[in-house]
Design goal:
This protein is mostly helical. Helices cover about 60% and strands about 0% of the residues. It contains two helices and no strands. The protein is extended. The two termini are about 30 Å apart.
């Protein structure tokens, strides 16, 4: 995040709101990873397999 964007974010949201946004994003990201790992993704969702960096 650039310093301009960080400054705008800090000016717009209180520290409590920033924490709530961060926790919400982390939960969303975490649950989406769990759904993919369990094979519960929607059938119409495109999937892309990327090789592990450094793997031969």
């Amino acid at each position: 995040m650039s310093s301009d964007v960080a400054a705008a974010f800090e000016a717009e949201f209180t520290p409590e709101q920033q924490t709530e946004i961060g926790v919400g994003l982390a939960l969303f990201h975490g649950f989406s990873k769990v759904l993919i790992a369990l094979g519960c993704e929607p059938s119409e969702m495109d999937t892309v397999e990327l090789p592990t960096p450094g793997a031969s």
